């Protein structure tokens, strides 16, 4: 994958990392590929998400979590958006990762997804950079 030659630009509609760190609501977008042959199963899983998975998300201070699907040049992709309202993002994300029901959920959903080359080590989804925010 080509590396971007652009540098971040910050302004009134794009917070600096320092401003982001102090925001009461932190917004995150991420992307991952969706295996076309698993799309129907992925949709069925998310049409009936296990209640314990929802509770783990809420306990981890995540709100307004959504996942979208699109097709680009014949390949399927998932885009997720979530808002984090807690005080310790890393600890809350670890709580989700350690949850036994969530681990079972991921065993169902992970084979449906196609990791992208720009993800962080150990991550499934690739983080996206915020370039615009209108509150």
Summarize the structure.
The chain has 135 residues and is α+β, with helices and mostly antiparallel strands. 33% of the residues lie in helices and 25% in strands.
Top keywords for this entry?
135 residues; alpha+beta; Alpha-Beta Plaits; 5-stranded antiparallel β-sheet; 5 strands
Structure write-up:
This protein is α+β, with helices and mostly antiparallel strands and 135 residues long. The protein has a single domain, classed as Alpha-Beta Plaits. It has 5 helices and 5 strands. Strands 1, 2, 3, 4 and 5 form a 5-stranded antiparallel β-sheet that branches. A hairpin with a 2-residue loop joins strand 2 and strand 3. The model has no long low-confidence stretch (mean pLDDT 94).
Provide the fold topology.
Layout: H1 17-22, E1 26-34, H2 39-47, H3 51-59, E2 62-72, E3 75-84, H4 89-98, H5 100-109, E4 113-114, E5 126-127
Antiparallel strand pairs: 1-3, 1-4, 1-5, 2-3
Which regions have little confidence, pLDDT < 50, spanning 5+ residues? none
The first-level CATH class is given as Alpha Beta
CATH architecture: 2-Layer Sandwich
Average the pLDDT over all residues and give the rounded result. Answer: 94
Q: Tell me the structural class.
A: alpha+beta
């Amino acid at each position: 994958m080509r590396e971007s030659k652009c540098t971040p630009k910050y302004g009134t509609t794009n917070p600096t990392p320092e401003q982001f760190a102090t925001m009461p609501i932190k917004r995150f977008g991420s992307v991952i590929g969706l295996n076309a042959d698993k799309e129907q199963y992925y949709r069925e899983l998310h049409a009936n998400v296990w209640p314990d998975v929802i509770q783990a998300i809420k306990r981890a201070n995540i709100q307004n979590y959504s996942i979208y699907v699109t097709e680009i040049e014949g390949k399927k992709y998932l885009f997720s958006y979530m808002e984090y309202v807690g005080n310790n993002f890393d600890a809350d994300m670890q709580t989700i990762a350690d949850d036994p029901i969530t681990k079972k959920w991921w065993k169902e959903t992970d084979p449906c997804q196609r990791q992208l080359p720009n993800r962080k080590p150990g991550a499934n989804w690739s983080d996206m950079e915020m370039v615009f925010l209108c509150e």
